[in-house]
Design brief:
This protein is an all-alpha fold. About 70% of the residues lie in helices and about 0% in strands. It has one domain. The model has no long low-confidence stretch (mean pLDDT about 95).
């Protein structure tokens, strides 16, 4: 009972951390004068991919916190599956509503981010309750999926492919914008 309450408290704190820092990370790149290091942690443009990064970065940080606090990676795979669910929800919801409306609405984009965070945590917590995904093999798989996600965001921030997911709809560019003098 006590262990379950501690897990719920940690997950709730993680959800709030992800919501808060995910929203703040939207602005960090510009706040730092477009510092190179900030490009890998925050949104560098308005592409859907960069908005997905707003979920991934705080989620990955909190996953490390969770593993350190618990001194075990039993939650790694449920958290990885939750992350993937949240990441999938962002483009699915964004492209669905913009396809219907024909335009992007800022407040709806913010709500989509928040809904994706809530979905990610719901999936993660639901899977953690069953404890079926906590064996050492699943722990390793979960850690590998988190590492793969981190590497994907690092790589595609600087080398985005020519796909709509990576295009900034405000100016048609992809990836880290060139510095203007």
């Amino acid at each position: 009972m006590r262990k379950e309450r501690e897990r719920r408290t940690l997950e709730t704190a993680g959800m709030l951390f992800t919501l808060l820092f995910g929203n703040l990370l939207h602005f960090v790149y510009d706040w730092t004068g477009q510092a190179g290091w900030a490009a890998y942690l925050s949104a560098v443009n308005e592409s859907t991919w960069e908005h997905m990064k707003l979920l991934a970065v705080p989620w990955l940080v909190w996953t490390v916190v969770t593993i350190v606090v618990n001194r075990c990676a039993a939650s790694a795979l449920p958290r990885a599956i939750g992350l993937l669910a949240g990441l999938a929800a962002i483009p699915a919801l964004f492209y669905t509503y913009t396809g219907i409306l024909g335009k992007s609405v800022g407040v709806v984009n913010i709500l989509i981010f928040q809904a994706a965070v809530l979905l990610a945590y719901f999936v993660s917590v639901s899977l953690q309750k069953s404890a079926r995904l906590s064996s050492i093999l699943f722990q390793i798989l979960g850690i590998l999926l988190h590492l793969l996600a981190a590497l994907a965001f690092l790589f595609f921030t600087s080398s985005p492919p020519a796909l709509p997911l990576f295009v900034d709809p405000t100016n048609g560019t992809r990836g880290i914008p060139p510095k203007t003098l």
